[in-house]
Amino acid sequence: MTTQPANTPTPTPPTHRSSPVLTALAALALVGVTAGAIYYTVRGTGHPGPQGSPQSKPGGPLSRDDLDKILAGAAELYKRGEAPAAEAVLTDAIHNNPEHQDLYIMLAQVMTGRDNSAAYGHWERAIERAQAAGQTGKELAAVHYQAGNLAMILARLDRAEEHYAQAQGLDKTDPDYPQALAQVYKKQSKWPEAAAQVTLSVTLAPDRAKGWADLAEIELQRRGGSPALAAQHATKARALEPTRTPWRLIEARALNRGGKPADALAVLGGVSEAERYQLPVLRLMGESYGLLSRPEDAAELFARASDAVPQDPEIAFDAAVWAERAKQPAPAARFASRAAALGHPAGKAMHERLTAHADER
């Protein structure tokens, strides 16, 4: 038995949004296919399909019922961890019946995570079949969206942009599509275009925190952006999802940049205990203390953090840096020694410098 890729869901074509027929197919795949149908053997592979998978028909097109059974059988194989057998079933069916879009969609899903390039090719072929059949609307939009997601994984930004734009053109009511297109523009540092797409997304879904957080991030990244406006957007995101640390980090960055480090510290004070000693949180708090001319508070913070997480070389080194800024040579040397022992590239040199100065004194 071959194990399917970790964190890869059982295929239920098409993903993201499913038609009523294919939603029913997903349910069928969960309970196994209908008993008594033809036992299907994949040509030339030696892999038998599950009971209920019909033989593909080189002499004529598949009926909708037969197609659903093949798809459900492939889904069942995949769920059992037999991805190669599922691929073989679908590849054979496509060979004999290349006009069926759904076969390409499920084959793409089965291959995603194991062979993303090949999976992306099948998403594109599904789109070609849909276009040849004159298909439009939300289902085709969902297929473009999935193709765009895989193009992003493959770093094919031009193709991702095309797919997301097509999805948005076919379904203007789904906030995921402009949100996804904005991610393409962000990777290309096209900040005005990204902002326009995220604005559209939050207009469609004003209660989704990620949209407001993206607007804040774009405002911080773009030339001439407003830290105050970024902070406002991040505050909305945090109000919607108060336990999400990333939104607090964006808000704190905006507040620091806008000259409000005390407010940034108040925001960061709400970070959970489990995340308080993570390096991004610590460094933002250190930045805030630095802006307030309170290096001794930053030194105390990093000292506690390094003692709580003694195996982290970055925290140890930052603790040494802040201790030195706070004119605390003994703690600075201790944390530099810890950083050096943990393999920090600058820890050894800092420790040698600090101890040399101590000898001179």
Describe the model.
It is elongated, with a radius of gyration of 28 Å. 67% of the residues lie in helices and 0% in strands. The longest helix has 17 residues. Helix 2 packs parallel to helix 4 and helix 7 packs antiparallel against helix 8. The chain is mostly helical and 361 residues long. Among the domains are: 135 residues, no CATH class; 63 residues. The protein is built from 18 helices and no strands. The N terminus is likely disordered.
What distinguishing features does this structure have?
361 residues, mainly alpha, elongated, disordered N terminus
Biggest β-sheet, characterized? Answer: none
Number of strands: 0
Structural class: mainly alpha
What is the average of the pLDDT values? 81
What's the order of the H and E elements? HHHHHHHHHHHHHHHHHH
| Poorly predicted tracts of residues | 1-59
Shape: elongated
Q: Cα distance, first to last residue?
A: 69 Å
Radius of gyration based on Cα positions: 28 Å
Percent of residues in beta strands? under 5%
Query: Fraction of residues in helices?
Result: 55-70%
Task: Report the total helices.
Answer: 18
SSE layout and pairing:
Layout: H1 20-31, H2 64-79, H3 83-96, H4 101-111, H5 116-132, H6 138-153, H7 157-170, H8 176-187, H9 191-204, H10 209-221, H11 227-240, H12 245-257, H13 261-268, H14 279-291, H15 295-308, H16 313-325, H17 329-341, H18 347-360
Helix pairs in contact: 1-2, 2-3, 2-4, 3-4, 4-5, 5-6, 6-7, 7-8, 8-9, 9-10, 10-11, 10-12, 11-12, 12-13, 12-14, 13-14, 14-15, 14-16, 15-16, 16-17, 17-18
